[in-house]
Amino acid sequence: MNILELKNVTKSYGNVHALKDFNLSVAPGEWVSIMGPSGSGKSTMLNIIGCMDKPTSGSVSIDGIEVTARSNKELTEVRREKIGLVFQQFHLIPHLTALENVMVAQYYHSLTDEQEALKALERVGLAQRAKHLPSQLSGGEQQRVCIARALINYPALILADEPTGNLDEDNEKLVIELFQELHREGHTIVMVTHDNEVGELAQRRVRLEHGRLTQIA
Amino acid sequence: MTKQAMYLRMVTAALKNRKSRVAIALLALVLGIGVISGLLSVYSDITLKMSKELRSYGANLVLVPAQQQEGSTLESAKLNRMLEQVPQEKTIGYSPYLYGIVTGNKQRFVAVGVDFSGIQKVSPYWSLDGAWPSENNQIVVGSALAEKLELKVGQKLNITAEETGKTESLQVVGMVTTGSTEDYQVFLELNKAQVLLGKEGQIHTAYLSVMGNSAELITLAETISQAEPGIKANPIQQIARSEGVILEKIRTLVYLVVIVILASTLLCVSTTMMAMVMERRREIGLRKALGATNRAIAGEFLGESALLGITGGVLGSLVGWGIAQVIGLSVFKAYITLRPSVLMAVIILSVLVAWVAVIMPVRTAANIEPALVLKGE
Asked: What is the complex's ipTM, to 2 decimals?
């Protein structure tokens, strides 16, 4: 069973098709990168996979759950249970420490477990920075906290949106290594990126243009 | 950290992170709740204090001759007999009045024979400059008349009764201002007046101040009128009635002021909370992206506003207590009692205001899309 299955997904805004008959399957443990220029429909697709938007037609299933016709509340539940999100701009809550930022994901998921959150930070090499506020962390460190937060609830799918887009070269390298490790450990990753070098590291690359799939390598 | 502890941590951290906004909302609450708390504290004490205060407005029973004719008088002896009808413990005070036209310093004016110790009780609103007479050749002059006669405290005044032609030399020891006819009259001891005016043992009228509500006064008046056929006792209704009317007006005013203050506090807190939601749109979007339901987001804002409400309520009660004392001391010349019920009520009110104020901001928060956090949109 595929972790992610998009069949003939179309998203239209009036006469404009942001996505047109889009098909994509992602197997467990696979790392797929989605590339394409601005306005190609990447964001729309990301929103649909992330259960933050619904397609106009077609079907989407995540880890065996058909999400196409679900209510917003049910979509929130699927997102909470199945998806770990990594953002380009990290999006850490500024007034909470690194550890608490990881625990926020636990809080909305089920129960908070400080030790487990600490282990997740350890996993990304930031145990010693657990009590620091985001403003006291570098961009790379913030992104690693964001990754620890994405991993904390054992998601079926890690959905990364330009995860290296805001990082310098050294930090980009660190974060890429982390994704490679996650991939080796068997995590399923869907990553949207502009960066060809980063995209090349994935097992499979999907290219979007004008809402259509143009190339699979 | 338990889930509850995490909730508390998120709520307090969110407030701490926006100190200036929180300070504005808190200030609005403290001031609003402070004034409301002060008003309610005063109001809960007011029935008792107003009652005492209104009683101090003086006479509520006037005694006149039953046969009202020009110049008809009562006998002092009858008055004394009549006073026995009034229970001692209910009598606050009384004063007889005997009027007569006199001349002095080439002016005509009214001289009034009174009982000075009684008049202080039946007319406590008299504003006296100087002293009350302690000897029977001392007098109190109405302030307007004193000005007309160019009199000062300590000076002598010779007055001559028109009817009898008798003259007395009297010393001015005080000047009275009431804003009424008393300002144009001269007051002297009853006995002295009776001799001067040639009306020994007589008075025109007497004012009584007794305790009791409107119904009790009417009953007492009837009892007196029946016991002494020559005397007619009339309750001064407006005082008794105005007590209720004034309290009713004050109640309406308090409610009105409370509503206006609540509305303005609500607006201020709500606007501030709305600004906080707008500033935190991304954070709210993120929480939703991480799986927070609208209910969870609402729960956090309710928690934040409850914390704000409790703090505002407690600080507001303290401010209100201060306000109550200022009002109490300046209006009633007495401290206002601190009532736990008022304290609890205003803290609960403060939390309710904070909760109502957060309804609109929570609705706005519910409409924030989680997709906001993607692609930096």
From this structure: 0.91
